[in-house]
Design a protein that fits this description.
The longest helix is centred in the C-terminal third of the chain and has 4 residues. The chain has one domain: 3 Solenoid (Pectate Lyase C-like), CATH 2.160.20. The strands form 2 sheets. The protein has a 29-stranded parallel beta sheet that branches. A two-stranded antiparallel ribbon has the order 30-31. The chain has 1 helix and 31 strands. It starts with 13 loop residues before the first strand and ends in a 26-residue tail after the last helix. Strand 30 and strand 31 form a beta hairpin. It is mostly beta strands and 491 residues long.
């Protein structure tokens, strides 16, 4: 690149980066054309598109074909807007890279010692975003470690046909994946997250120790803190074998999915969410969750040294918005289901349901055809952690005021230690599920040998094909005389 902002490679080429650490921004090689007056713009131009999906433009680390043991590091500096830009880039692949900066700061943090300096040059060894993308299609992100940026690991919208595999988003100052790039950020087509790990976002990563400190929530300190968050969006989202944990606000926030885009759909399989400060999983529109472990220990940050900027237990940052484990927000006529999952929580509800007009009043009113189906799950409640009096978490929050659940649609579950103010079917078991470990902060959802969940669930393929033939670990179902309830098949 030079001041004309052209790549030397052309669309369809492969650029292989050798092992090492590479400064990205003013002061790096070939940046004499940059000015300290606008150092944030001293960055690579958008990657050129490949000619077609079969011939993508590729930036890869050396060894990408043999396991990617040593990723080359690209680190942003002096307030660079982004390390890699995929604006208007299609037919491209990024693989086997570490993307980060060399600073401990976070943009706009309430504590001055943590806040990034943005008033005068030199700004410091930080970059705002790891990867920025807009109006981009047929892109693969694979084997990436994106961590410690001043605001977001990925800031991306108006995407279609994206695949994200074996990517880590961690310790970014504001958010892991920010899907709001401004007006009309909505996505379309297929979006796949597979083996995605999203953790500690909203907790600025320190450099060089790579620890997490000064986690900052929305209520006390004015932060953000979602692991993954979207603006109004469409698309068919598939999330498999992924983990969302220890993010300051919601772990996976797809609340805006389906708003203005009624044909959206989300499918979550064999995934885990725990230790997030808000909802563990929040999903808008038609959706299915299967074989997932969802533990809302939403008071996780309270009293810990890295949570000092999140206020007291009643600040609103701990169990933000009540801290329901799973939240379904349905549009008119939509159905959501959760099967063979294990859900626990210390927030106000294990499952939260409602019409999307509660958050988006301009959407069409729900008409009574909406449904939330809950089969073959284990639900384990706890004391609501932010209340000073005895109160167990609700099974379905407030008794499901929009009446999305019904006795036939909520059956073959194990429900324990929670308030049940909504209708349930006759084959639910109101018993201790006898899990391996029920400590909310050290939870193990596997079954003990005497668990009532063993062999008592609906059969594989029943409930209209919803019941899966394997469990969260890939173990075939059933292992005994019948399918076990919950995420784990006993064996």
């Amino acid at each position: 690149q030079d001041e004309s902002a052209f790549w030397r490679i052309k669309g369809g080429d492969t650029l292989v980066i050798g092992q090492g650490s590479y400064k990205m921004g003013i002061g790096a090689p070939n940046t004499a054309w940059c000015s300290t007056d606008w150092s944030w713009a001293c960055r690579l131009p958008p990657l050129p598109s490949g000619p077609d999906p079969a011939h993508p433009t590729r930036i890869v680390g050396k060894g990408w074909q043999t396991g990617c043991r040593h990723k080359p590091q690209l680190w942003g500096t002096e307030r660079a807007e982004t390390v890699i830009d995929l604006t208007n880039t299609s037919n491209a692949c990024l693989e086997c890279l570490e993307i980060t900066d060399h600073s401990s700061c976070a943009n706009d943090h309430c504590r001055s010692s943590v806040r990034c300096q943005r008033n005068r040059f030199p700004y410091g060894k930080y970059a705002d975003v790891g990867i920025y993308a807009a109006d981009s299609s047929n892109v693969t992100l694979q084997n990436l470690n994106i961590h410690g940026l001043a605001w977001a690991g990925v800031h991306a919208g108006r995407l279609s046909h994206w695949t994200v595999k074996h990517v880590r988003l961690a310790g970014n100052g504001g958010v892991g994946w920010d899907g709001d790039i401004g007006r009309n950020s909505g996505n379309r087509g297929r979006v796949t997250f597979r083996r995605l790990k999203v953790e500690w976002n909203g907790c600025p990563e320190t450099f060089p120790s790579l620890e997490y400190a000064h986690c900052w929530g929305q209520e006390t300190c004015g932060g953000y803190g979602d692991g993954v968050g979207l603006a109004r969006s469409g698309g068919r989202w598939l999330i498999e074998d992924s983990v969302f944990r220890y993010n300051v606000s919601d772990g996976l926030d797809l609340l805006y999915l389906g708003v203005d885009h009624p044909d959206s759909f989300a499918q979550i399989r064999r995934s885990k969410a725990y230790g997030n400060g808000g909802n563990q999983m929040k999903i808008g529109g038609a959706a299915t969750i299967e074989n997932s472990l969802i533990v809302s220990n939403c008071g996780f940050f309270h009293g810990r040294p890295f949570g000092q900027d999140m206020g007291n237990l009643d600040s609103g940052d701990h169990c933000r918005a009540g801290g329901a484990a799973v939240s379904f927000s349905l549009g008119r006529g939509k159905t959501a289901s959760m099967v063979n999952s294990t859900v626990a929580g210390q927030g106000w509800a294990l499952v939260e349901t409602g019409c999307n007009t509660h958050d988006f009043p301009e959407e069409p009113a729900c008409d009574g055809s909406e449904e939330v189906i809950l089969h073959n799950n284990i639900f384990r409640g706890f004391q609501v952690c932010y209340l000073g009096y005895k109160r167990l978490t609700d099974f379905v929050g407030d008794g499901d005021p929009d009446h999305f659940t019904s006795a036939p649609g909520v059956d073959y579950n194990v429900i324990f230690n929670s308030e049940i103010p909504s209708p349930i079917g006759p084959r639910n078991l109101l018993k201790n599920p006898l899990l391996m470990r029920s400590n909310i902060n050290a939870f193990d959802g596997r079954l003990q040998g005497r668990s009532p969940a063993i062999d008592t669930g609906l059969a594989v393929g029943s409930a209209g094909g919803l019941i899966p033939d394997h469990d969260i670990e890939g173990t075939p179902r059933p292992q005994g005389n019948g399918v076990d309830r919950g995420a784990y098949e006993y064996h």
